Amino acid sequence: MTDENIDKIDEVEPALSPLAKCEAEAAECKAGWQRAVADYKNLQREVLSRQGEWAQLSERKILEEFIPVYDHLKLSLQGTSSKDQGKSDPWIEGVKYVLKQFADILKSHGVEEIKTAGETFDPRFHESAGEEEGGEAGKILREVSGGYKMGERVIKPARVIISK
Description:
single chain, alpha+beta, Nucleotide Exchange Factor Grpe, Chain A, domain 2, three-stranded antiparallel beta sheet, three-stranded mixed beta sheet, 6 strands, elongated
């Protein structure tokens, strides 16, 4: 900088009073503080939103891990009622009770079984395991393995046999 430029700066600065300088600095500090408060509030909202997402993700992951156990319990009871007509086996009754508890817990968390037999095949909820003759084309004849959804989100698609 030349001496001439320095003289011009000195001429402009005295024009601002010390009060005006303080007011300008205070306004700048206030604007910075307001931005910081707004950023903090946005961060709080985002953290709360993420915590809710993490909680839902954790719940869904745990439920997804228990569904195969529930399916295996259901499979363990297939065919038992027809063999034991009139007889009550305490072990079978116990498994039925555990199965009912499992179903109640899944239901309380919004998990529903996907309807299959007699329904129209829907690739959003069903996975075709094969086709067979009989019935109306595109209808589900039987279920190979159960499917589950939580709201409209499919946790596990139902594997089904559909009619040709």
